[in-house]
Design goal:
CATH architecture: Alpha-Beta Barrel
CATH class: Alpha Beta
Largest sheet: 8 strands, parallel, barrel
Distance between the termini: 45 Å
Strand order of the largest sheet: 1-2-3-4-5-6-7-8
Helix content: 40-55%
Order of helices and strands: EHEHHEHEHEHEHHEHEHH
CATH topology: TIM Barrel
Bound molecules: SN-glycerol-3-phosphate
Length: 218
Amino acid sequence: MKLFIDTAHIPDIEEIASWGIIEGATTNPTLLSREEGDPREILYRICEIVKGPVSAEVIALDAEGMVKEARELAAIHKNIVIKIPFTVDGLKAVRRLADEGIRTNVTLIFTPLQALLAAKAGAAFVSPFIGRLDDIATEGMKVVRDTMEIFMNYEVETELLVASVRHPMHVLEAAVAGADIATVPPKVLRQIVKHPLTDIGIERFLADWEKVKGGKAK
Ligand code: G3P
């Protein structure tokens, strides 16, 4: 499973990209609204750091407006992928953009059938929002499992990108389900790295090594 970073915050992206585990990034209007500066410049910088697909979302709600905005966003950098919300107009825009060779990521997916329709329209990625389903007492991960099964049944090439990830269990379950990608906020990536037994282990090794240096180890 590939790991993308779900943020537009450049310091976090720079730091975590340096770990060597990130293969793409996702943004949305909310994430970009939290950052200072021109969103287009921020998107360009993310592309330069991450060196993989970087999702940038359209604001327009009509297919014509989405396609126009998508072309402008795609011109920022070759790695930009256009995030399109799942609506009828969104599907129309995805088909037109696929025919032009512009990759899309259909967002705000909450059912496997929405994912199937998005794939049929030509989406490169579909993004089920797991955390937001869990928020309303509906199992988000079931959408991931069912969508994976449908995509495997029919050898669908669209990649399943697990989004709205809130904690490490979401990442674990996405990987067990065979999801292609999970996009993970910096906080959750840092939680995954941390393990108290690793910290205690390092402490013990260092303490024992001090004894060797002091000539007291047997
Ligand atoms: O990848 C989509 C994500 O940013 C939405 O997450 O936590 O706002 O549901 P959340």
